[in-house]
Design brief:
Blueprint lengths: L8 H14 L13 H18 L9 H8 L8 H8 L4 H16 L3 H5 L26 H12 L7 H4 L4 H17 L5 H13 L8 H8 L4 H19 L4
Helix pairs in contact: 1-5, 2-9, 4-5, 7-12, 9-11, 11-12
Length: 245
């Protein structure tokens, strides 16, 4: 049986770019309708998955530093809000600008990559052999949500450690990105699908509506409280579905 391999994040973003260039309107691959916050969350979630799977991403590790230091296109507040302002709120154009940087980076030669600074310590990424093999076991999405719940505790604002700006669209994208990473690698994660069904069947989530809309409304527009409620529901579901003892 052939080994399963993890798909690099930049490959996913290149596929999204190709899809957006081929069609004038969404929904587009992976993201649906253009939404900067959701894509930002998806990227964070995908990176979290790559970290959990302990893959070696090789020269892809240079992308963020290249974009910030060489292109000077990654401001401290993140690319999303700045690009949105540049394009007067046009999310599609903002996303396309970001994806064009991905394509430019992917076009760099091995010599150009080797010349890039690597301030993070350890061997330069060009000296590392990429390793994308899926490990025998992987952290499921609900495990991730319970880990987030444990890390943030009761401290306001700590959700930002995982998603940056605390926004339900970011969190929805974060979950999407993590699940997409697992799915493209062929890892089974059926528990989260059962959790979603449980939200609809037992917790009153209306058919056809995402948790983000429903919980944000239930928490009177408070994004952080809506996300914390989701994490509590994840803990409740896991407790109910786990065998006693």
């Amino acid at each position: 049986m052939p080994e399963k391999t993890v798909v690099p994040l930049l490959d996913v973003l290149m596929n999204l770019r190709a899809d957006m260039k081929s069609r004038s309107t969404g929904p587009y691959a992976y993201i649906g309708m253009p939404d900067v916050e959701r894509l930002t969350g998806l990227i964070s979630g995908y990176l979290q998955c790559l970290l959990a799977l302990k893959v070696e991403v090789g020269t892809d590790a240079l992308f963020r530093d290249w974009m910030r230091d060489v292109k000077q296109a990654l401001p401290g507040q993140g690319w999303g809000s700045v690009y949105l302002e540049e394009f007067q709120g046009d999310a599609k154009r903002a996303i396309q600008k970001y994806l064009d940087f991905v394509a430019e980076f992917r076009g760099l030669s091995s010599q150009e990559l080797a010349a890039l600074d690597w301030p993070s310590g350890g061997p330069h990424p060009t000296a590392r052999t990429p390793r994308w093999t899926l490990p025998p076991s992987s952290k499921r999405t609900l495990d991730l949500l319970l880990e987030v719940r444990e890390v943030i505790g009761d401290t306001p604002g700590r959700l930002g450690l995982f998603i940056g700006l605390i926004d339900v669209r970011r969190m929805a994208g974060f979950i999407d990105g993590y699940r997409l990473c697992l799915a493209l690698a062929g890892a089974r994660d059926e528990e989260y699908s059962r959790f979603e069904r449980w939200l609809h069947d037992e917790k009153g989530l209306p058919a056809g509506q995402e948790w983000s809309q429903h919980l944000l409304q239930a928490r009177h527009g408070d994004d952080e409280q809506a996300i914390r409620h989701l994490l509590e529901l994840a803990a409740e579901f896991r407790a109910r579905s786990s065998p006693p003892g």
